[in-house]
Write a structure and sequence with these properties.
about 150 residues; mainly alpha; formyl-coa transferase, domain 3; Wheat Germ Agglutinin (Isolectin 2), domain 1; 3 domains; two-stranded antiparallel ribbon; 8 helices; about 10% strand
């Protein structure tokens, strides 16, 4: 399957039988395909599922599976995730100095976490991080010169 940059995806992970059956029902797969769970049958099943999933949009699948136990969910961008009702209710994201970012985790009732500082500007710590990862000064300069890494100001 060839994907374009604007395509949206779903995550599929129905490992237990009742989740698997809910997913198969949701994709309206041929009943004979739904029973194919042996490893040697996976390539054919994978192809059939891929054809089903590319036949609809991510939002169509989200609507279809929203109130099921099928373990099928949309893959959200950071901005979509920050606006998702489930994540809003759990305060999973916060705004720090105008930058939306994931909230600190894990969260414990007796030892609450907190944001320690404002978010870094893009590239602000690139050289420091690259040095920590073992890059030499000349390698870091080459990464900045080529545009492969961004240097903050």
């Amino acid at each position: 399957m060839h994907e374009t940059a604007d395509q949206k995806h779903v995550s599929v992970g129905p490992l237990e039988p009742h989740f698997y059956e809910a997913m198969m029902q949701g994709v309206e797969l041929d009943p004979t395909m739904a029973d194919r769970r042996m490893p040697e049958e996976w390539p054919e099943l994978r192809n059939e599922l891929a054809e089903k999933f590319i036949s609809r949009t991510r939002d169509d699948w989200q609507e279809r599976f929203e109130r099921t136990d099928a373990c099928v969910a949309p893959v959200l961008s950071l901005s979509e995730a920050a606006g998702h009702p489930h994540l809003i209710a759990r305060e999973s994201f916060l705004d720090v100095d105008g930058v939306v970012q994931p909230a600190p985790a894990p969260r414990f009732s007796r030892t609450p976490s907190a944001v320690q500082s404002s978010p870094a500007e893009p590239g602000e710590r690139s050289a420091v991080v690259l040095r920590e990862w073992g890059f030499s000064a000349s390698e870091i300069d080459a990464l900045f010169d080529s545009g492969a890494a961004q240097q903050g100001g």
